[in-house]
Amino acid sequence: MNILFYTTDAEPQRWVEALQQHLPQARIATFPEHGQAQADYAVCWKPPADFFNGQRGIKAVFNIAAGVDYILAHPAMQSGYLHGVPIVRLGDAGMAAQMEEYVLAATLRWQRQLDTYAAQQRAGVWKMLTPVNRSVVNVGVLGLGVLGTHVARSMQRFGYQAIGWNRSERQIEGVDCSIGDGALGSFLARTNVLVCLLPLTESTRGILNRANMARLPQGAHVINIGRGPHLVEADLLALLDSRHLSGATLDVFPEEPLPAASPLWRHPQVLITPHVSATTLREESMAQIADKIRRLEAGHPLTDVVDRSKGY
Ligand code: NDP
Asked: Given the CA of residue 91, which atom of ligand 1 is nearest to it?
């Protein structure tokens, strides 16, 4: 079995070794050193435009991430024989627990008013604020997929009111689920801490816009851990400056790294992290991909196959 491999990581060999450990019989070639060998499978993250050139036997493309917007935008996916080849994404692979930590940390920071206390500290002010009980805080999760479901459940277990919004029907114990575009407005009106865990598609691009974020109650906090283009930056800044929103925790941006000129860097109510809310774990992800390849070779059905018509 031949595997064609590419990652933007500075040490691709370490990923190849991890994959090789789980697939000892496989011949794994890293791009661009692979020459013209015909691959059975591609395992990749953000492959360059010529990655698939000359490849005519690929049976499945494994995306080393949960989000598939990059791979779906690859020129080879739009045309030619790859059009019908399954794209397989990571399913959790250690990311859900990281997302849970990130959302919990950001929510606690907001609920315990730590930013206000930090500002008071800088001003030398000793002043007790009215405490906010977590049982009256609604944490609303946009997108109840693998990651969103995990986050909503864990916030509920932690004592917050967990609510969620999704395209298709969801039953999640302890989580009040709203379904479809018609329910978005009332969902937002009840959300104190909004968590975006949607995939980036034409229907979700710009969903964190002025009209939608204005529906959040005054003082709400926005956490974007989906993709940068979900958020309209100028709309966020306007709502922060008008004090409608109290703050935002942003991990993803339309352009990464976030350009130095972005006003988000210096905004006192914005916390920026460099796309680290859930990093792809090498061991877990390579083990999962190897397991899926073995299942495919054994004729078993695949999980986490991307629905190209939906865009995720
Ligand atoms: P899933 O595909 O499992 O879940 C996506 C969910 O979003 C599904 O439940 C889907 O609904 C819902 N959804 C999609 N479109 C709409 C819509 N138009 N309206 C309402 N609901 C919609 O993905 P994951 O949970 O694994 O990951 C979610 C996203 O998180 C990724 O696509 C990626 O963008 C981001 N991510 C970010 C990371 C980071 O480090 N910041 C790391 C990993 C992922 P339905 O059930 O109907 O299909």
From this structure: 26
What pLDDT, on a 0 to 100 scale, did the predictor assign at position 78? 79
CA-CA distance, 92 to 98, in Å (whole number)? 10
Are 161 and 137 spatial neighbours (Cβ–Cβ below 8 Å)? yes
The DSSP H or E segment spanning 99 is: helix 95-111
| Pocket lining for ligand 1, CB < 6 angstroms | 66-67, 95, 143-148, 166-168, 197-201, 203-204, 225-227, 251-252, 275, 277-278, 312
Ligand 1 centroid to residue 159 C-alpha, Å = 24
What does the mean pLDDT of the chain come to? 96
pLDDT, tens digit (0-9, with 9 covering 90-100), for 116-135: 999 999 999 999 999 999 99
Instruction: Report the nearest-CA residue for atom 46 of ligand 1.
Output: 168
Strand order in the sheet with 2-6: 27-30, 2-6, 41-44, 60-63, 87-88
H or E element: which one contains 4? Answer: strand 2-6
Residues 6+ apart with CB under 8 A from 162: 138, 139, 141, 152, 153, 155, 156, 174, 175, 176
Which atom of ligand 1 is closest in space to residue 279's alpha carbon? Answer: 40
Q: 304 C-alpha to center of ligand 1: Å?
A: 12
Residue position matching structure tokens 């007790």: 128
pLDDT tens digits, 15-39? 999 999 999 999 999 998 876 689 9
- Most distant pair of Cα atoms in the chain: their distance: 68
Q: Which residues are catalytic?
A: 227, 275
Is the CA virtual torsion 95, 275, 149, 133 positive or negative? positive
Report residue 100's pLDDT band, with 50, 70 and 90 as the boundaries. Answer: very high
Share of the chain above pLDDT 70, in %: 99
Distance CA 7, CA 45 (A): 5
d(CA 85, CA 77): 9
